[in-house]
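The records we work with from here on pair a chain with its fold. Taken together, the tokens spell out the fold as the letters spell out the chain. The record below shows the convention in full.
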Amino acid sequence: MNALDTGARIWAGLAVAPSSALMFVVGVLLAGALAGEFIAATTRLPRVVGYTLAGCVAAAFGHGVGMPLSGAAQTVTDLALGLLLFEIGSRVHLRWLRRNPGLAATSLLEASLSAVAVAVVLRFFDVSWQTAIACAILAMPAPAAVSGRVSMELGAEGQVTQRASLLTALNTLYAVIALTLMRTWWAADDGGSLPQALAGLSISLITTLGLAALLAGAVYLVARRLDLRNESAVLLLFGLVAFSIVAARAIGVSTLLMPLVAGLLLRNTSDRPWVWPRHFGTSGGALVLMLFVIVGSAWSPKILVAGGFAALALMAARFVAKTIAIVALAPWAKASWRQGLALSITMTPLSATALVMLSELMRAEPELAAGAVPIILASIAVLELIGPIAVQFALRLAGELPPAPPRRRRNESGKQPGTEGRP
């Protein structure tokens, strides 16, 4: 084959392959944007509800994304969730835990108690211990996407909003590490060598930490020379984070753990506050929009039937366990019971983090993941839709939403008040 033929084949691949991916991205973006604006214009609900609803409608008509994630859906999910986790990590000051040990105890208790409750409850539905433990770990993290997007859109500020970011970052960290340990243990239990499995785990974690440190260092160097509130600087920052996430996927390390650890390193190795537009401006906002549509479409009517009552039991056990842990330790964590209840409600949704973890488990351990798929996807389908509404209610309960602007009323003549004398 000569160079001309090789070049023609490469060009043909570039011309054909991206077309379907591009159509997917454009379709998801348009559907989500239209649904979000319709919801915002007709209700007082967050636009996130419209984004998710667009995905749910697509799934109901058989056009949802396939699992495990692949192609454009995986790329968008990796980038959007990675950006969100990096942003959350960069806003979490871990010294807060040292000043407030009750908050640290709350984080550990709500994550562990919810995992135990889910595993025990699923055993009553004749789910195997392996599947029950997998579901418990997958259901552990609260949604970085839902709580962050809703609080940003509604302009929420206060203790509950800040504590939700902290707990979300920590229980995502717990869940990813727990899933990695579970996979390592079962790989050794299936006939592999435990020392070899632990060596592979150590190499993976060291690689993740190294890549996270490189990203944090690159952002720090950029911030020393550029104003991160500037549009050009934000695009550079967006590119650094996106490149690191793509590199993590190529190397084979966690695309969830790496950006989260990078954000934590950036925030907790420097006393300066890191300020840039939320979700990295328009580019990140578009990715987050598509993320909600993709996650909302990751189910089918068949999966809802298969998940059935086990998914409902998972959701109930998870909510009750998180509520008990957070409300019980609220006084020690220097919060009122009202703030504790509101915080527990913000931790209710189950979203993209669990979906990505499930996708990775399906690739690594398909037999183990088979039993967890219908339960987790059915839970995500329900909680992804009602989650934003629950977060909005919780933030209003905590009194952290700004007052809604009064709607302008028309008088009987149909004119706006104060315009009677105008022609």
User: Anything to note?
Assistant: The first helix runs from residue 3 to 42.
